[in-house]
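User: I'm curious whether this sequence folds into something compact or stays loose and floppy. Could you predict its structure so I can see for myself?
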Amino acid sequence: MQSVLLLNAKGGCGKTTIATNLASLYASAGFKTAILDYDPQGSSHYWGALRENSNRPAIYLIDASHKRTGITRAFQLKTPADTERVIIDTPAGISRDLLREAVDRADMIIIPVAPSAVDIHATAAFIRELMLIIKTRARGIPISVIANRVRQNTPIYQPLEQFLELLDIPFLTALSDSENYIEASAAGIGIHEMEASLVTNERIEWAPLVKWIGENLPHIPAPDESMPLRAASN
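Assistant: Here's the prediction. I'll summarize afterward.
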């Protein structure tokens, strides 16, 4: 079983959007998939309820946002025995205790960052804290960063890229601020479950991320190594 953690203490970077689209990508590829939702707002759960009416492969959802009384935490977070992929969705301002718990359950971490100087500065500070937490647990968890909700002609994140180079953390791709994500979310599906001709750019933008997490999925194009790190035009 492989667990992917979506993480950033800064709000507004689209963690749930990435989490639900990654979960639907796995599910549509035939993997038994679950989402651990640490966000008290329950956005992933709301999306999952919409998905029940979509005739798409089921995704198991677990409310991890608070500790329930009367049962152990391990039982509360238990996934079905046949689960192959787990996506961990987290809120802004996640507590240190829940952050440590989520990190302990992760095989890899993806940090989305929104295109603003404030978000980039806050993300850099958060990464420093995260690295300390990982170091104290003596775990070599791979971390990557993606730009999210990027509009056409948004400048590349040069200061953040330079910071990440010092830490040997890859800056994978930039995902467009596309209406297709809104339409997919409202239907309880992911962009990879939409008509391919409608989401060509989005699939191209996702390819480096899919490659980094080590999946070879037939419905994802191979990443174009020559493509600049910016959102494609919509």
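Summary: The chain has one domain: 2-212. The mean pLDDT is 86.
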